[in-house]
Design a protein that fits this description.
The protein folds into two domains: 171 residues, P-loop containing nucleotide triphosphate hydrolases (Rossmann fold); 54 residues, no CATH class. Helix content is 36%, strand content 24%. The strands form two sheets. A six-stranded mixed beta sheet has the order 6-7-8-3-9-10, with helices on both faces. A four-stranded antiparallel beta sheet has the order 2-1-4-5, with helices on one face. By secondary structure, it is α/β, with parallel strands linked by helices. The protein contains ten helices and ten strands.
Length: 258
Protein backbone atom coordinates (compact mmCIF):
# COMPACT_ATOMS: atom_id res chain seq x y z
CA UNK A 1 0.00 0.00 0.00
CA UNK A 2 1.04 3.59 -0.63
CA UNK A 3 0.26 6.58 1.56
CA UNK A 4 -2.28 4.59 3.54
CA UNK A 5 -3.24 4.72 7.16
CA UNK A 6 -4.55 1.96 9.36
CA UNK A 7 -8.30 1.65 9.80
CA UNK A 8 -7.97 2.39 13.53
CA UNK A 9 -6.13 5.64 12.75
CA UNK A 10 -8.78 6.67 10.24
CA UNK A 11 -11.77 5.61 12.31
CA UNK A 12 -11.02 5.18 16.02
CA UNK A 13 -14.56 3.85 16.51
CA UNK A 14 -13.90 1.07 13.96
CA UNK A 15 -12.73 -1.33 16.64
CA UNK A 16 -16.32 -1.41 17.89
CA UNK A 17 -17.83 -1.83 14.43
CA UNK A 18 -18.81 -5.07 12.79
CA UNK A 19 -16.80 -5.78 9.65
CA UNK A 20 -19.02 -7.29 6.94
CA UNK A 21 -16.40 -7.57 4.18
CA UNK A 22 -12.69 -8.08 4.80
CA UNK A 23 -10.23 -8.42 1.93
CA UNK A 24 -6.56 -9.19 2.44
CA UNK A 25 -3.75 -9.16 -0.15
CA UNK A 26 -6.12 -9.75 -3.08
CA UNK A 27 -4.52 -10.58 -6.43
CA UNK A 28 -6.12 -10.96 -9.86
CA UNK A 29 -4.51 -11.17 -13.30
CA UNK A 30 -5.77 -11.76 -16.82
CA UNK A 31 -2.94 -13.43 -18.68
CA UNK A 32 0.10 -11.22 -18.23
CA UNK A 33 -1.97 -8.21 -17.16
CA UNK A 34 -1.95 -7.73 -13.39
CA UNK A 35 -5.12 -5.89 -12.36
CA UNK A 36 -5.12 -6.36 -8.58
CA UNK A 37 -1.68 -6.90 -7.07
CA UNK A 38 -2.01 -6.62 -3.28
CA UNK A 39 -5.35 -5.11 -2.33
CA UNK A 40 -6.64 -5.03 1.25
CA UNK A 41 -9.75 -3.28 2.56
CA UNK A 42 -12.66 -3.57 4.96
CA UNK A 43 -16.33 -2.63 4.75
CA UNK A 44 -17.98 -1.81 8.06
CA UNK A 45 -21.58 -2.53 8.91
CA UNK A 46 -23.88 0.31 7.83
CA UNK A 47 -21.34 2.43 5.95
CA UNK A 48 -21.12 3.67 2.36
CA UNK A 49 -17.58 2.98 1.15
CA UNK A 50 -16.73 4.72 -2.12
CA UNK A 51 -13.92 3.27 -4.25
CA UNK A 52 -12.33 5.66 -6.74
CA UNK A 53 -9.91 4.86 -9.50
CA UNK A 54 -9.11 5.44 -13.14
CA UNK A 55 -10.49 3.12 -15.83
CA UNK A 56 -8.58 -0.15 -15.67
CA UNK A 57 -7.63 0.25 -12.01
CA UNK A 58 -9.56 -2.90 -11.07
CA UNK A 59 -12.69 -1.41 -9.47
CA UNK A 60 -15.22 -3.59 -11.29
CA UNK A 61 -12.94 -6.64 -11.07
CA UNK A 62 -12.87 -6.17 -7.31
CA UNK A 63 -16.64 -6.35 -6.82
CA UNK A 64 -16.95 -9.29 -9.20
CA UNK A 65 -14.41 -11.12 -7.04
CA UNK A 66 -16.41 -10.24 -3.92
CA UNK A 67 -19.52 -12.04 -5.22
CA UNK A 68 -17.58 -14.91 -6.79
CA UNK A 69 -18.27 -13.96 -10.42
CA UNK A 70 -14.49 -13.93 -10.80
CA UNK A 71 -12.13 -16.11 -8.80
CA UNK A 72 -9.12 -14.28 -7.39
CA UNK A 73 -5.59 -15.61 -7.90
CA UNK A 74 -4.46 -14.96 -4.34
CA UNK A 75 -5.40 -13.40 -1.04
CA UNK A 76 -8.68 -13.78 0.83
CA UNK A 77 -12.18 -12.32 0.62
CA UNK A 78 -14.38 -12.80 3.68
CA UNK A 79 -18.04 -11.78 3.52
CA UNK A 80 -19.94 -12.24 6.79
CA UNK A 81 -16.95 -14.32 7.96
CA UNK A 82 -17.23 -16.72 5.00
CA UNK A 83 -14.24 -17.03 2.67
CA UNK A 84 -15.72 -16.61 -0.80
CA UNK A 85 -13.16 -18.69 -2.71
CA UNK A 86 -13.77 -21.69 -0.46
CA UNK A 87 -17.56 -21.77 -0.81
CA UNK A 88 -19.32 -24.50 -2.75
CA UNK A 89 -21.92 -23.43 -5.33
CA UNK A 90 -24.84 -23.85 -2.92
CA UNK A 91 -23.16 -21.79 -0.18
CA UNK A 92 -22.09 -19.15 -2.70
CA UNK A 93 -25.67 -18.90 -3.95
CA UNK A 94 -26.92 -18.42 -0.39
CA UNK A 95 -24.34 -15.69 0.22
CA UNK A 96 -25.28 -13.87 -3.00
CA UNK A 97 -28.87 -13.68 -1.82
CA UNK A 98 -27.66 -11.29 0.90
CA UNK A 99 -25.91 -9.04 -1.64
CA UNK A 100 -27.54 -6.59 -4.03
CA UNK A 101 -25.58 -5.80 -7.19
CA UNK A 102 -26.52 -2.73 -9.27
CA UNK A 103 -24.83 -3.11 -12.66
CA UNK A 104 -23.80 -0.18 -14.88
CA UNK A 105 -26.31 -1.25 -17.52
CA UNK A 106 -29.18 -1.83 -15.09
CA UNK A 107 -29.65 -5.31 -16.60
CA UNK A 108 -33.47 -5.29 -16.72
CA UNK A 109 -35.31 -7.99 -18.65
CA UNK A 110 -36.63 -6.11 -21.69
CA UNK A 111 -39.40 -8.64 -22.36
CA UNK A 112 -40.89 -8.20 -18.86
CA UNK A 113 -42.91 -5.35 -17.38
CA UNK A 114 -41.56 -3.47 -14.38
CA UNK A 115 -43.82 -5.56 -12.16
CA UNK A 116 -42.54 -8.82 -13.65
CA UNK A 117 -38.91 -7.64 -13.33
CA UNK A 118 -39.47 -7.11 -9.60
CA UNK A 119 -41.50 -10.28 -9.09
CA UNK A 120 -38.77 -12.46 -10.58
CA UNK A 121 -36.17 -12.16 -7.77
CA UNK A 122 -38.87 -12.14 -5.08
CA UNK A 123 -40.34 -15.46 -6.23
CA UNK A 124 -36.88 -17.00 -6.56
CA UNK A 125 -35.42 -15.81 -3.24
CA UNK A 126 -38.34 -15.00 -0.91
CA UNK A 127 -40.38 -18.13 -1.54
CA UNK A 128 -42.36 -17.80 1.68
CA UNK A 129 -44.24 -14.70 0.46
CA UNK A 130 -47.84 -14.94 -0.73
CA UNK A 131 -49.30 -12.94 -3.62
CA UNK A 132 -50.49 -10.10 -1.40
CA UNK A 133 -47.10 -9.78 0.29
CA UNK A 134 -45.34 -9.80 -3.08
CA UNK A 135 -47.60 -7.01 -4.37
CA UNK A 136 -47.05 -4.97 -1.19
CA UNK A 137 -43.28 -5.37 -1.37
CA UNK A 138 -43.19 -4.31 -5.03
CA UNK A 139 -45.31 -1.25 -4.31
CA UNK A 140 -43.06 -0.37 -1.35
CA UNK A 141 -39.81 -0.38 -3.34
CA UNK A 142 -41.35 1.45 -6.31
CA UNK A 143 -42.54 4.19 -3.97
CA UNK A 144 -39.08 4.34 -2.42
CA UNK A 145 -37.49 5.00 -5.83
CA UNK A 146 -40.24 7.43 -6.85
CA UNK A 147 -41.78 5.31 -9.62
CA UNK A 148 -44.98 3.89 -8.19
CA UNK A 149 -46.79 4.63 -11.46
CA UNK A 150 -44.36 2.58 -13.59
CA UNK A 151 -45.69 -0.80 -12.44
CA UNK A 152 -47.03 -1.99 -15.81
CA UNK A 153 -44.56 -0.23 -18.10
CA UNK A 154 -41.97 -2.00 -20.23
CA UNK A 155 -38.28 -1.08 -19.84
CA UNK A 156 -38.33 0.36 -23.38
CA UNK A 157 -40.82 2.98 -22.16
CA UNK A 158 -38.47 4.25 -19.47
CA UNK A 159 -35.73 6.87 -19.64
CA UNK A 160 -32.17 5.97 -18.65
CA UNK A 161 -32.67 7.43 -15.19
CA UNK A 162 -35.96 5.61 -14.71
CA UNK A 163 -34.37 2.31 -15.78
CA UNK A 164 -31.62 2.85 -13.21
CA UNK A 165 -34.25 3.51 -10.53
CA UNK A 166 -36.17 0.33 -11.44
CA UNK A 167 -32.92 -1.63 -11.40
CA UNK A 168 -32.27 -0.32 -7.91
CA UNK A 169 -35.82 -1.25 -6.87
CA UNK A 170 -35.28 -4.78 -8.20
CA UNK A 171 -32.06 -5.04 -6.22
CA UNK A 172 -33.53 -3.89 -2.88
CA UNK A 173 -36.82 -5.78 -3.23
CA UNK A 174 -35.24 -8.85 -1.59
CA UNK A 175 -33.82 -6.81 1.34
CA UNK A 176 -30.07 -7.33 0.76
CA UNK A 177 -27.66 -6.69 3.62
CA UNK A 178 -24.86 -5.50 1.34
CA UNK A 179 -25.17 -3.30 -1.76
CA UNK A 180 -22.55 -3.20 -4.51
CA UNK A 181 -22.92 -0.28 -6.93
CA UNK A 182 -20.91 -0.44 -10.16
CA UNK A 183 -20.68 3.11 -11.61
CA UNK A 184 -24.28 3.94 -10.61
CA UNK A 185 -24.32 7.39 -12.29
CA UNK A 186 -22.53 6.55 -15.56
CA UNK A 187 -24.36 7.84 -18.63
CA UNK A 188 -26.84 9.92 -16.67
CA UNK A 189 -27.40 13.66 -16.87
CA UNK A 190 -26.28 15.75 -13.86
CA UNK A 191 -29.77 16.12 -12.37
CA UNK A 192 -30.53 12.40 -12.62
CA UNK A 193 -27.06 11.57 -11.27
CA UNK A 194 -27.80 13.66 -8.19
CA UNK A 195 -31.13 11.84 -7.76
CA UNK A 196 -29.41 8.43 -7.91
CA UNK A 197 -26.84 9.55 -5.33
CA UNK A 198 -29.69 10.65 -3.08
CA UNK A 199 -31.39 7.27 -3.56
CA UNK A 200 -28.17 5.47 -2.56
CA UNK A 201 -28.25 7.38 0.72
CA UNK A 202 -31.97 6.68 1.15
CA UNK A 203 -31.37 2.93 0.67
CA UNK A 204 -28.60 3.03 3.28
CA UNK A 205 -30.95 4.64 5.81
CA UNK A 206 -34.18 2.76 5.05
CA UNK A 207 -32.73 -0.71 4.50
CA UNK A 208 -29.69 -0.44 6.83
CA UNK A 209 -27.37 -1.59 4.07
CA UNK A 210 -23.58 -1.68 3.98
CA UNK A 211 -22.45 -0.50 0.54
CA UNK A 212 -19.47 -0.40 -1.77
CA UNK A 213 -19.89 2.27 -4.44
CA UNK A 214 -17.54 1.99 -7.41
CA UNK A 215 -17.35 5.30 -9.24
CA UNK A 216 -15.19 7.84 -11.01
CA UNK A 217 -17.93 10.47 -10.53
CA UNK A 218 -16.52 12.71 -7.82
CA UNK A 219 -19.88 14.41 -7.28
CA UNK A 220 -21.46 11.03 -6.49
CA UNK A 221 -18.52 10.24 -4.18
CA UNK A 222 -18.93 13.51 -2.31
CA UNK A 223 -22.67 12.94 -1.90
CA UNK A 224 -22.56 9.33 -0.70
CA UNK A 225 -19.23 8.49 0.94
CA UNK A 226 -18.79 7.84 4.63
CA UNK A 227 -15.26 6.77 3.71
CA UNK A 228 -13.24 6.68 0.48
CA UNK A 229 -10.56 4.44 -0.98
CA UNK A 230 -8.53 5.30 -4.07
CA UNK A 231 -7.02 2.49 -6.12
CA UNK A 232 -3.80 2.72 -8.11
CA UNK A 233 -1.23 0.18 -9.31
CA UNK A 234 -3.46 -2.72 -8.30
CA UNK A 235 -3.86 -1.78 -4.65
CA UNK A 236 -5.07 0.85 -2.20
CA UNK A 237 -3.31 4.16 -2.85
CA UNK A 238 -5.08 6.18 -0.16
CA UNK A 239 -8.04 5.81 2.16
CA UNK A 240 -9.81 8.16 4.53
CA UNK A 241 -12.68 10.59 4.91
CA UNK A 242 -13.61 13.09 2.21
CA UNK A 243 -11.70 15.88 3.97
CA UNK A 244 -8.54 13.76 3.82
CA UNK A 245 -8.62 13.87 0.01
CA UNK A 246 -9.91 17.27 -0.98
CA UNK A 247 -6.87 19.47 -0.36
CA UNK A 248 -3.98 17.09 -0.96
CA UNK A 249 -1.19 18.24 -3.24
CA UNK A 250 -0.95 14.83 -4.89
CA UNK A 251 -1.29 14.52 -8.69
CA UNK A 252 -3.29 11.27 -8.56
CA UNK A 253 -5.71 12.62 -5.99
CA UNK A 254 -5.99 16.05 -7.62
CA UNK A 255 -6.96 14.41 -10.91
CA UNK A 256 -10.27 13.52 -9.24
CA UNK A 257 -10.68 16.41 -6.83
CA UNK A 258 -10.26 19.30 -9.26
Amino acid sequence: MKDTETLSELMPEAANKEIVIEINNLKKSFGTQQVLTDLSLQLNNGENLVILGKSGSGKSVLIKCIVGLLRSDGGTINVFDKEVNKLENKELGELRQKIGFLFQSGALYDSMTVKQNLEFPLRRIRRNLNEKEIAEKINEVLENVGLADALNKMPSQLSGGMRKRISLARTIVVDPLIMLYDEPTTGLDPVTSDEISELINDVQKKYKTSSIIITHDIKCARATANRLIMLADGGVYKEGKLKDFEHLDDPLVKAFFK
